[in-house]
Amino acid sequence: MIGTKLGNKNLFVSIGHVYNYGLNKACYLAYLLQCKKEAIKSDPQNNGKFHLTNHELIEGLQLSEQTIRSYKKWATENDMIKTELKGSPPKQWYTIKIKATD
User: 63 and which of 67, 69, 75, 99 could share a cystine (Cβ 3.0–4.6 Å)?
Assistant: First the structure.
């Protein structure tokens, strides 16, 4: 694991993720895993599911909207994450299907 600070989050990025996916995608996955960890602490009933807006991802990761959408599509197609719209107004909910050390 490599530790780094990104925005207001301390991220721990798997060296395996960096090797397999590159640094930026590994940071994207680490950010989502950190959000999952925080979601479990704040509301255990959601089983690690959490919601984020693209704006929150852009601010948190300091990447462009196009890059965020590209990474989300990549992670979804590779069965690493699942997203769904729920609620009123609808919110993008994430389910993370990988472990921090995959």
Answer: 67
3-state secondary structure of 70: helix
CA distance 94 to 73: 13
- Cα–Cα distance, 25 to 77 (Å, whole number): 14
Strand order in the sheet with 91-96: 50-51, 91-96, 81-86
pTM of the full structure: 0.84
Q: Give the N- to C-terminal CA distance of the chain in Å, as an integer.
A: 11
Tokens representing residue 82 in the block: 């699942």
What is the full per-residue pLDDT of the chain (102 aa) written as tens digits?
566 655 556 667 778 888 888 888 988 998 999 899 889 998 888 888 999 988 888 888 888 999 999 999 999 999 999 999 988 888 899 999 987 655
